[in-house]
Amino acid sequence: MTHSTSNVPDPGKSVISDRTLIRFLRVAAVIGAALGVTGAVSIVADGHAEELWSELSGVFVVFSVFFAVVVWLVTPHQPRNPVVWTMTASAFFSGLFMAGL
Asked: pTM for the whole thing?
């Protein structure tokens, strides 16, 4: 008795489509940029603007926005490039850090 392997994905073929991957990476990058800007605005609104520039907080805002823009532009052309994934993670987590301050 032989078993059918029709439900097993082909090792050479990806399970997630490029279109879905592009959407996921773009959403993650935009969320990171929005969190970074929101965190910076809340720091300034609380009257602690000097903290934004005295520590590395300002750098994280720039990272989150810059990497979000790069990911938005590059992802449709290279959605499976690990560098694009790394830039997406940098945008998301630097924005998340800023939102946590």
From this structure: 0.81
